[in-house]
Design goal:
By secondary structure, this protein is an alpha+beta fold. It has nine helices and three strands, in the order ααβαβαβααααα.
């Protein structure tokens, strides 16, 4: 990211650009067959993304996960009927949490945005690091494949495993 976005609208536009680039990269990456079951061919995949405030994220996290804090990213899978048409779901990213995590990790906020979008898309593709160690390892592998090498060491799976997120 050449310049750091200054407001929520600019971050929203940046998130959409990151997502478009990631979808192109996912198309070129070999994914496990079981993940592709029921999905249309990769070129038709679509994902929505929203950048929101800490209050909005806290409300969503409390409603859907029963956790009363603003988390960094939530992934909402689309119902099967929409997935078969290419809509994988929606990502919601908390701007203040994203910025704070970037500062904690010593990386640029734009790089943290890439990490969160990548992590969220992997959830929409069926990965869930909270379900098993095997899925966590698989998810970490794909984070490394999809993120630029300069930031892949900061992937969320690695942070969760080491207790840094």
């Amino acid at each position: 990211m050449k310049t750091t976005p200054k407001n929520q609208a600019e971050w929203q536009a940046a998130a959409e650009r990151v997502l478009a680039g990631l979808v192109r990269k996912v198309r070129a990456t070999t994914l496990p067959r079981e993940m592709l079951k029921g999905l249309p061919p990769k070129p038709r995949w679509q994902v929505g993304v929203r950048i929101i405030s800490a209050l909005e994220m806290r409300t969503l996290n409390r409603k859907y996960r029963r956790k009363n804090y603003a988390t960094d990213v939530l992934s909402f899978e689309a119902p099967e009927i929409f997935k078969t048409q290419g809509m994988l779901g929606e990502l919601v990213i908390c701007l203040p949490t994203m910025k704070a995590q970037a500062k904690e990790q010593g990386i640029e906020p734009g790089d943290e945005l890439r990490i969160l979008v990548t992590h969220g898309v992997l959830h929409l593709l069926g990965f869930d690091h909270e379900q098993s160690e095997r899925q966590a390892r698989q998810m970490e592998l794909f984070e490394k494949k999809l993120l630029p090498s300069r930031i892949s060491r900061s992937g969320l799976i690695k942070r969760v495993a080491s207790g840094n997120s």
